[in-house]
Specification:
This protein is an alpha/beta fold. It is about 45% helix and about 10% strand. It has 20 helices and 18 strands. The strands form 6 sheets. The protein has an 8-stranded mixed sheet with strand order 6-5-9-2-12-13-3-14, sandwiched between helices. Helix 2 runs parallel beside helix 5. The longest helix is centred in the N-terminal third of the chain and has 29 residues. The radius of gyration is 26 Å and the shape is elongated.
Amino acid sequence: MKNSNSQIRLAAFYAILISLLALGYWAVFLHEIHGGRDLAPAAIVALLGYVAVLYLRPRSASQIKRPVALIYWVFAGLFYPWLVLRQYFGAVTVSAVVYHWGEGVTGGVNIPSILAHVAALVLIAILLHAIYLFVAQSRWGNFMLLSAATVFLVLNPITRYVGDNLSVLGQGAPESVRAFASDPIITAEPDQPRNLVIVLLEGLEATYENPVFGDAYAPLADLRESATSFSSVRQIPMTGWSVAGLVASQCGYPTPPRGVRPSFLMSDKEVDFMSDRVCLGDVLSKQGYQVEMLLGANAVFGGFEAFLNSHSFDRVTDLQGMKAYGATDFGPWGFHDGEVFKAGLARIRELEMAGAPYALSLFTIGPHGPYGYLSEACRSEGMPDAVPDVLLAVECTGRLARDFVNEARKIADPSTLFVVMSDHLAHSNVSAIGQLKTLQRRNTVFFVNAGNEGTVVGKRGTMLDVYPTILEALGFELKGRKAGLGTSLYSGIRSFADGEDQLTTEQRLRRDVRFVRWLWRNELGDEQG
């Protein structure tokens, strides 16, 4: 009888343990977190199963040798944070993680994201220990555990990061990025200043126009028909998150991490955001422009506020300011895009009455991921504001942006230039990422009221090239037609990184320490080496 009970206990142990392994595999590799809403119950179930496994596990001595166990837990521990980050953000780069560690994520934390991270922490920790418990009972356990540790080591992004850097040792110094960089030198100014309105569309890349995505991009395609569009603007490393996309398109530079220290350990100078570089706001402010940013989220997040304060923005309207415009439609990241565009129209009316030239940037959030976030105007009765299908948010934000530009043109000065663009390509945690990765991906970039409506400019470029292109569209003439690392898309001059693969560009940016120091702290002054 006792032997029978032991067999039942052992069978229950393995049944529950295998179920935990299956649940963990689903959660980590097959499931995309959506704000923790459907993963939190799985974490609770896993916790209950884990307690049962610990109670039922055999009391016999483990087959695992102590050095093997140590190796497993060291490599599993190093891989653990990347697994957690992957659950909420999709595949992430070392550069992006180091950047946000330094600049901070204050203002981006909400209850759903806390639930998501707690659920991920629990499920992944249980999965790692379940693997250990499973193989510990096998005579091949030491070999299996070392194999698992090797897999963790190989898949760890840090391993690839180090490997990429080691692979270029002995290849000689790369072409100097610093030698290519140049803050804009203005050789001629426009006779009459033109107002500027920039609409930055979160992750709403031009690739969504592919027929595989149906009519999701149709509203923007309609707007583009009356614009000058740039069809071959790709993304290079260190420009793939919101602040980095803003820096690329308004300063002409990528955003390499300034270091690994968090912001609360930095000096005041270090908290400045590339304050010695000359960006769009700096140029226009000197020309008498009122320079502003309007966004529905918290401007503190990820270095936004530091950038805006460092580059001549006279006014920033974020969460508190939006309330003054009557915004009420609030979502996980802040006010939805519909509220941003309503406030944008109201602000344009105020700026037009003031009479001075202005440059107003608006930031959206709809297709951010992992959910698509729908404004009230796009939701039917009873429909949630966060939906798994990102294409619904692509269509919603695109439609609101089109209607905003059409309405704004009626109230703004007739010469006002409207720039509509994605801040970066879609994040890797959106529902459409599998299809996007099979296509040639390009950013949305087009200028409304720039002349030559309906023209398609096919020059190959990156988001760095948008900055000098905006300046030229406003009527400025630039020495060498350059600004930052960008060259005007109107020119025939080769763009930075043209023809390079992503890895080569990233290695150049990482290895040119002189450039990074100059970019953030102006070290080396005007040396070109």
